[in-house]
Write a structure and sequence with these properties.
It contains 16 helices and eleven strands. Helix content is 43%, strand content 14%. Strand 5, helix 7 and strand 6 form a beta-alpha-beta unit. Helix 6 runs parallel beside helix 7. The protein is α/β, with parallel strands linked by helices. Strands 1-10-9-8-11-3-2 form a seven-stranded mixed sheet, sandwiched between helices. A four-stranded parallel sheet has the order 6-5-4-7, with helices on both faces. The protein folds into two domains: 265 residues, Rossmann fold (3-Layer(aba) Sandwich), CATH 3.40.50; 116 residues, 3-Layer(aba) Sandwich (Rossmann fold). It starts with a strand and ends in a 10-residue tail after the last helix. The mean pLDDT is 95.
Amino acid sequence: MSATLFRNPRVDPEALYPAALAQIQSLAAHAQAKTEIAAWPGFTPTPLHDLKVLAAEHGLGAIWYKDESGRFGLSSFKALGGAYAVMRQLRRAVAAELGKSVDEVMPADLLAGRYRAIAAKVTVTCATDGNHGRSVAWGASLFGCACVIYVHALVSPGRAAAIAAYGARVVRTAGNYDDSVRQAQRDAESNGWIVISDTSYPGYRDIPRDVMQGYSVMAAEALAQCPAKPTHVFVQGGVGGLAAAVLAYLWESLGPARPRIIVVEPDKADCLYRSARAGRPVVVEGTLDTIMAGLACGEVSLIAWDILSLGADAFMTVEDRAAADLMQRLARPVGDDVAIVAGESAVAGLAGALAARANPEQAAALGLDATSRVLVFGSEGATDSALYEQIVGLKPQDVGRA
């Protein structure tokens, strides 16, 4: 597997979590998100799989795979973020309507439908590659507001249908993900809708911050489930929200004892990698045509960049072939390793870890050796069953039956 690696010259491994970054992500805000999300119907921590055989094959001490394929039945970690931000915005809308403080509008009352008449007047919207929009649509259904989701030209029909299944109106746009983001913003301004985006841009920070804080619930679960502290975390890129949420939680929790954090992207959609090399946010133009659809992003989230630019140890890119190979391997494990249904974007971090271990220069640069304990986030399951079967050669429901 071919991969490129860039070590971040700005990172200080001895630094404590900066106070300025706590305005974006903090343990205090995490505690609130954890309490509220844990009260949602169907909440349960997702499993952490110990892939001992795969680790031994690649000369690593451990590979721990946080499996998000069952999160709230949405098959993705993004169920934690978009829906949480929807709930936060509805609390504000209800409070404004009733002349109350936000703290007086209890999440349990929203869930119980106490404010359905007010919530029904609100429309939330976003652009999506699939999983975030599904979370926003699910959150709108759960809390009782209207929802319009924008999908770009390369979003598969299966992912669009999964969003519509929650009652959202799905609008397909021309161009790539970033084009659909701009269209959603324009239409929201015209119609008085609330944009629930997982990416931030000038003048738009608060809602993506709530989305990322929802993701921190997954990071906290993973750290608690690891049998020992991981030495390395390889985590997917995209706009950077997932990686920044994981980094922020681990950095504030563990300080200089945190693991090394390596951000991994498709080589066809590498805005974070290019931004790291340039020392500033860089836009990647074009179709961004990668099978890792959830990571097909050309512009970084500014608040995520604030965290990653200071705290990520390295940035990597991997090829689509590496993702496909790992999806197949996880579905057909060797020895006692558990069979896993991993979507295309789920395996980017793992692909980066294995590629770096196989490259002596990269392994040395990252301190990756036979004693390394690697944590990765399997961020999605088969969010498009037809595409999954095409890549893996098995239906998702048949994985593990043998």
